[in-house]
């Protein structure tokens, strides 16, 4: 018999809610304790873990509101027969909500008032970012639901204002870092010195969930979205120094003392700069495929990953990230597709690339930062990296250790998570 995944109670006030983001895909094999989905709860993202090992199926659509305790998916044992029970899962969780709301909705209609349909998550996000009030807006979606195109039309008469706003995203300094913290999420709580994770270009903080999914240990982990990425502000900093200011202010807001920094690609370059500045109590540094070791970068990838919009066009570019394309899971692919649906986010990333990767060149070097380090530092690099050349690791300063992975591309922390975690643990203990 399959095991049911239920919607948890995350608030004393609310008896129902929606899934903000699925982190797994239909038919994916999951492990007990692996994070399956997120629920937005005020400023924090509440993570819901898998109750068992198996194959997850019949995922409830994130646009469906479900009762606390309602089923949102089922986990089957490997080889166990399954049917298309998605409708049944949704029915169990959503019928009560619809019934509870039917009476007031009917009364509203009888009194001549239309109850405003809920906007889609993308429509809601675009409206919030542009200060648009959706009250009274009748959508073109099923049942009058407000969709992205409806918000675009309201922003600027047939969408022209939104297009202008997207195209006007410029490379300009962020406000004072103390006034605009970056988006930060605790991926797990625990005891001891925390590890702070910084992702790479065109990714977001969810990039680290695969590394932590099967990891043991009880130390806390905080992940931060870079500027112009994820849910952080979309203005692009002038330089790496201003970006470091921003991260330092974010960590101060989280009241973090001693810490270990882990970074991937551009996030690794930023981590090196943060460590060399001496403003934070950094006890160790673990850099996965760090940028900033040389000027070369796969310029076609940078352009292609921002230009592609659909899963069919994105997949070939994402395959360049790993030596084994199987590393790019359906959930990974779907997350990037959702990014491209957000035109403002994609435009911000393109402005970021124009600033830090002009003309297909890494404009930032962190070699002198590495030479000044006083804390333990390790670099993990794949010999088959097709984004940044492995040859850039030549001539590293003697105070930095290098782990060269064979049969590994640009994401050693996801391609060899157990080995990557062992190295990170060693850095943390030595610090």
How would you sum up this structure, described in words?
The chain is of the alpha/beta class and 431 residues long. The protein has 3 domains: 3-96, RNA polymerase II/Efflux pump adaptor protein, barrel-sandwich hybrid domain (OB fold (Dihydrolipoamide Acetyltransferase, E2P), Beta Barrel); 116-167, E3-binding domain (Dihydrolipoamide Transferase), CATH 4.10.320.10; 177-430, 3-Layer(aba) Sandwich (Rossmann fold). It contains 14 helices and 16 strands. The strands form 4 sheets. A 7-stranded mixed sheet has the order 10-12-11-13-14-15-16, with helices on both faces.
Could you give the topology of this structure?
Blueprint: E1 3-6, E2 16-17, E3 21-22, E4 29-30, E5 35-41, E6 44-49, E7 54-57, E8 66-67, E9 71-76, H1 86-110, H2 121-129, H3 148-156, H4 160-167, E10 184-188, E11 195-198, H5 209-213, E12 221-224, H6 240-253, E13 259-264, H7 266-277, E14 282-288, H8 299-307, H9 311-319, H10 330-341, H11 343-356, H12 367-371, E15 377-382, E16 401-405, H13 412-415, H14 417-430
Parallel strand pairs: 11-12, 11-13, 13-14, 14-15, 15-16
Antiparallel strand pairs: 1-9, 2-8, 3-5, 4-7, 5-6, 7-9, 10-12
Helix pairs in contact: 2-3, 6-7, 9-10
Q: What would a concise description of this structure say?
A:
With 431 residues, the protein is of the alpha/beta class. The chain has helices at 86-110, 121-129, 148-156, 160-167, 209-213, 240-253, 266-277, 299-307, 311-319, 330-341, 343-356, 367-371, 412-415, 417-430, and strands spanning 3-6, 16-17, 21-22, 29-30, 35-41, 44-49, 54-57, 66-67, 71-76, 184-188, 195-198, 221-224, 259-264, 282-288, 377-382, 401-405. It folds into three domains: 3-96, RNA polymerase II/Efflux pump adaptor protein, barrel-sandwich hybrid domain (OB fold (Dihydrolipoamide Acetyltransferase, E2P), Beta Barrel), CATH 2.40.50; 116-167, E3-binding domain (Dihydrolipoamide Transferase, Irregular); 177-430, 3-Layer(aba) Sandwich (Rossmann fold).
């Amino acid at each position: 018999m399959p095991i049911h995944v239920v919607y948890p109670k995350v608030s004393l006030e609310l008896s129902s809610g929606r899934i903000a983001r699925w982190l797994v895909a239909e038919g994916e094999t999951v492990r007990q304790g692996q994070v399956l989905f997120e629920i937005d709860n005020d400023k924090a993202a509440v993570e819901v873990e898998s109750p068992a090992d198996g194959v997850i199926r019949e995922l409830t659509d994130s646009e469906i509101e479900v009762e606390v305790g309602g089923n949102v998916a089922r986990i089957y044992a490997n080889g166990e027969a399954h049917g298309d029970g998605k409708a049944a899962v949704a029915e169990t969780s959503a019928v009560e909500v619809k019934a509870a709301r039917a009476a007031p909705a009917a009364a509203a209609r009888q009194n001549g008032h239309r109850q405003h349909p809920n906007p889609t998550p993308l429509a809601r996000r675009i409206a919030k970012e542009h200060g648009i009030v959706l009250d009274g807006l009748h959508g073109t979606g099923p049942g009058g639901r407000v969709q992205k195109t409806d918000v675009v039309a309201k922003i600027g008469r047939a969408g022209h204002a939104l297009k202008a706003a997207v195209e006007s995203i410029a490379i300009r300094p962020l406000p004072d870092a103390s006034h605009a913290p970056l988006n930060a999420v605790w991926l797990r709580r625990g005891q001891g010195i925390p590890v702070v994770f910084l992702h790479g270009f065109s990714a977001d903080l969810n990039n680290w969930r695969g590394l932590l999914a099967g990891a043991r240990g009880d130390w806390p982990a905080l992940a931060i979205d870079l500027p112009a990425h994820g849910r952080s502000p979309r203005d692009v900093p002038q330089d790496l120094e201003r970006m470091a200011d921003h991260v330092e202010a974010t960590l101060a807001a989280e009241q973090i003392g001693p810490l270990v920094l882990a970074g991937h690609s551009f996030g690794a370059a930023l981590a090196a700069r943060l460590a060399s500045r001496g403003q934070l109590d950094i006890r160790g540094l673990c850099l996965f495929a760090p940028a900033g070791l040389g000027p070369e970068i796969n310029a076609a990838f940078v352009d292609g990953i921002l230009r592609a919009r659909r899963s069919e066009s994105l997949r070939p570019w994402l395959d360049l990230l790993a030596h084994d394309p199987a590393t790019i899971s359906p959930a990974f692919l779907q997350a990037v597709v959702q990014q491209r649906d957000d035109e403002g986010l994609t435009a911000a990333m393109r402005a970021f690339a124009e600033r830090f990767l002009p003309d297909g060149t890494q404009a930032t070097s962190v070699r002198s930062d590495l030479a000044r380090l006083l804390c333990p530092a390790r670099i993990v690099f794949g010999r088959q990296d097709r984004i940044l050349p492995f040859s850039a690791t030549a001539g590293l300063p003697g105070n930095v250790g290098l782990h060269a992975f064979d049969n590994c591309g640009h994401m050693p922390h996801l391609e060899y998570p157990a080995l990557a975690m062992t190295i990170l643990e060693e850095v943390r203990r030595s610090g």
